[in-house]
Design a protein that fits this description.
single chain; mainly beta; Lipocalin; 13 strands; 13% helix; Polyisoprenoid-binding protein YceI; TTHA0802/YceI-like_sf; Lipid/polyisoprenoid-bd_YceI
Amino acid sequence: MQGIRDIHGLYHLDPAHSALGFRVRHAGLSRIRGTFDQFHGHALIDGGNVQHSALMVSISASSINTLVTDRDAHLRSADFLDVATYPALTFVGTDFEILDDDHVRVGGDLTIKDVTRRVDMVFAWGGSSTDPFGNERIGFQSELAISRAGFGLTWNAALETGGWLIGDEVTLEIEASAVKKGSALPDEEPPGRRTQDAEAAADPADEGRPARRSLEPEASTGSAGEGGTVSASQPAAPEVQTTNSEPQTTTPGSVEETRIGFLRRLVRRG
């Protein structure tokens, strides 16, 4: 079986054999779980030169599913994800570090609604194999604890006994299986070509959308716990700065910029 450092090529996330879930405290007593049922993603992995790897995932906000119809409708509304205005959650991973034979850290930009925050996730290596259909597969697992208030998801209801109905900390759960689609990685191209690619990668749907807010790095990491009881006072959302530009995740003209542009085009094709 190959190790992390042996992986090289373009991989497509396999939604049929992957899962994106979350859990959050309810009334300070139990945890409610849910999933996002529609997503797609791609990764360019260079295990021998891992800092040049790149990852992009797009999640359909309207595919949120907690198995309760009324609750799901509320989560899709403007009180929470506002899926009519912000149809996708995205993660763009640009900072890779192999921690040991079984773990890799991926830093990048997580965007929910109009807020983008820098986060770090530690992925556990699940191994590699060839399935009965000849597909080369790799697997990873990770969890990431985030503050929902930090992404502008501040709706809540006070409890008579004190505290709040919904906890602020949300733990994202990732089980990923990806299929290899090619061995070659895009190299740096002449500056003129990069400019053309950047224009081609621009999303016309971004025109007229509300400006994206870029925040300071998220304090939580993938190793954070779930926290204890619900706070007695609703936490205030961090101050934000509004910007109409994309978050700066790569150095202009770099290998990473070229590869992220390549992944953006793949994600937009679905």
